[in-house]
Design goal:
The protein contains 4 helices and 6 strands; from the N terminus they run ααβββαβββα. With 156 residues, the chain is an alpha+beta fold. The N and C termini lie far apart (35 Å).
């Protein structure tokens, strides 16, 4: 299956899973479970939500995670500070990387926005260097759009 077909299928699954439900907590919990179940070679998939000048862990699948991440710190905090998705081939080469799980080797982080307001991030880690591609980034950005469109995340 091509990457395009894989993400079309994944995003269709998410749309079905969230159909008729707008609760942000339920939807982010199910979205993280779907990602963890369907994405090969990942060891963490979940969300951090912005509270003041820090991100706080939200629903996720994987090993226990860092509870709080300052804006600007690590890959997640950088995504919030810059407003741009982060595609990191080798987290050990990322300045200021926060090792919540020493096994993680690559990471993709997508900021979640409600208009101009950043709500938090979608964060996915892999134990393999170079696991994520530009096609993964595009598919996961669309995944985040589906989630944002289907959920009332402003209360997160």
């Amino acid at each position: 299956m091509s990457s395009t077909d894989f993400y079309a299928s994944l995003n269709a699954q998410l749309e079905g899973l969230l159909s008729g439900e707008r609760d942000w907590l339920a939807n982010t919990a199910n979205a993280s479970a779907l990602l963890f179940m369907e994405l090969p070679d990942v060891n963490w998939a979940g969300f951090y939500f912005l509270h003041g000048d820090e991100l706080r862990v939200g629903p996720f699948q994987g090993k226990p995670a860092c509870t709080r991440i300052p804006v600007g710190a690590g890959v997640c905090g950088t995504a919030v500070a810059t407003g741009e998705a982060q595609l990191v081939e080798d987290v050990h080469e990322f300045p200021g990387h926060i090792a919540c799980d020493a096994v993680s080797a690559s990471e993709v982080v997508i900021p979640l926005y409600d208009g101009d307001r950043c709500l938090g991030v979608l964060d996915i880690d892999s134990p393999s260097v170079g696991r994520f591609s530009e096609q993964d980034l595009a598919g996961l950005k669309r995944f985040a759009e589906v989630l944002l469109h289907s959920s009332d995340l402003s209360g997160a």
